[in-house]
Amino acid sequence: MKHVAFFCTALLLAGCVSSNFSRSSTPELYSALDTQRDGYTASLGNNASFEIVSTRTDGTRLCRVVNIDQPNRFVTESFCKVRGGEWR
To answer: How many Å apart are CA 64 and CA 54, to the nearest integer?
Structure first.
């Protein structure tokens, strides 16, 4: 029973800290993912900013690691896509 309670708590906390970025809510981020090199930094507004840290590919997917600095929060996200697809 303790394991079930721990698991449920972990799921709730994971839901609280997960970030939801989309092309419509953060167009400057997605535009940068499409066009900018590693090391690129820019503002997201509302005192938030981001930096594209690295880019990797496995031959099928292109993935980029991005640091996002928001007020009282720092997040590292990975965005990946297949050729012709959308960043997820």
So the answer is: 6
